Amino acid sequence: MESFVKVLNDILWGPWLVYGILIVGVLFTVMTRFVQVRLVKDSIVLMIKGEKSEEGVSSFEALSMALAGRVGTGNIVGTASAIAFGGPGAIFWMWVTAFIGASTAFVESTLAQIYKEKRGGVYRGGPAYYIEKGTGKKWFGMMFAVAALLATGILMPGVQSNAISSAVENAFGIETRVTGVAIVLLLAFIIIGGVKRIASAATLLVPFMAIAYILLAVVVIFMNISDVPAVFSMIIRSAFGADAVFGGLIGSAIAWGVKRAIYSNEAGQGNGAHPAAAAEVSHPAKQGLVQSFSVYIDTLFVCSATALMILFMGTYNVQEGSSTGALIEENVPNMTYSDFTQGAVNAAFPSLNNFGSAFVAIALFFFAFTTIMSYYYIAETNASYLFRGSNEKLAIWVVKIIVIAATYYGTVRTSDLAWAFGDVGLGLMVWVNILGMLFLIKPAMLALKDYEHQKKEGKDPVFDPRKLGIKDADFWIDYNEKRKNK
In angstroms, how far is CA 194 from the centroid of its own chain? Predict the structure, then answer.
C-alpha cells in the first residue's frame, strides 16, 4: 500500500504541478493587477463587516470556516516537514506561494459566489458548481466533486486526527485510541448540527487559537531578537541554493515549499471556495477579497510563526528530499515533525516543565479539529452536488459516517502513511480545480472590474450577471429581484 501511494504521489506532484501552480498564481496575480495588494484594505474592512441570513452566513463566519480548513496540521506539522525535507529555504517558497496564492484564492472564491445555488434552505457552491456552470460540462464538475469527496471525506481527515493523537500522546501519555474516541464524539455532535453549527464553532475557535499561537511565537521571537537577521539570511540563502549546508536542496526547497503551502492555505485546491459560497454578500468580489486575505493569515502569520520558532531554537533535522533521503542536518535525533515545534517551545521555556509539548498539543487539537469540521462541510457540499434530489439527505448521512470513521482510523495509523494519503487527496483536487479556473478566469475578471467600477462611483457594489454577460448565474437574478421587492 505505502509503495503504491508513493508512486501515485510522485505522479500527482511531479514538477509539472509544482511549477504549474506557481505559473498559474503569477498569471492570476498579473491579470488581477495584484488584487491581493491593491485591495488589501477592502479585504480587511469586508472581513469585519457583512450580514448573515437564514440561507447564508456572514463574511466573517465564512472566513472563519475557511480558516478552519486553512489553519490546521499544515501550519505546525506541515511547516516542520517542509523544513525536514526542503531545508529552511522551503519557508521562503511557502511565502512566495502564499503571496501569489492569494490571487488564486480570490479567483476561486469569487467564482464560487458567482455560480452558487440556494438548495435545502442554505447556499451551496464551490469548484464542482462553478466548473459545471461556467464550462457547461457536467462531467468536469462531477470529476472535481468525486475528487473532493475522496480527499476530504476519506484521505485527508486522518492527517489531522493523526497529528492530534500523536501530539497528545507525546505531551500527556494518552493512548491514541482514547484520543480518537474523544475526537469522533465531539465531531459527531458538531457535524450532525449542520452548517450553522459548524460556522458557530469555527467562529468561536478559530480566532482564539490563531491569536494565542501567534502571540506565543511573538514572545519566542522577542526572546531571540538578536538572531532574527541570521535566521532570515539562512532562509533566503537556502531558498536559492547559496547556503553551505543546504545548497543542494534548491529543488526540494521549492517542491516542499509549494506543496506544504498549498496543503496549509489551500489556495488552488478549492477548499476555501466552499465556505466562500455560503456567505451572504451583495457582490461575489467581496467574498473573494475576504478569502484572499485568509491566505495571508494562514501562511504569512501562522506558518511563519511555526517556522521561526523551530529555526530560532534549532529543533529540526533535514533529510535530502524525503524520509528515505540522506541526513544533511541532525540537531534533534528521533524527533517527529510535531516534535520539532513542541521541542522548540520546550527549549524556549526550559523552566516550565513540558510546557511546549502541552501547549502545541492543545494548539494542534484546535487547529486540526476545526480543519476536520471544514473537511466534513466540503464533503457534504460535494455530496449534495452529486446526489441531488431524493437521495441527497441519505448521501449526506453516509458522508457523516465516513468522515467520522476516517477520522478515527487516522488516529491509529502511522504518520507517514497518513500524510501520504493526504497528499494524494490534495493533488487530485488541485489538478481538477486549477484546470477549471483556467477556463473560467473571464467571469472572475468581469466581477472584479464591476466591483471596482461601482466602488469608484461611491456605491456599495451589487452584482448583476446580466449586465456583465455572465450566463448561468441564476441565483443572482432571483436574489436581485427579491432585493428590489423589499
Answer: 21
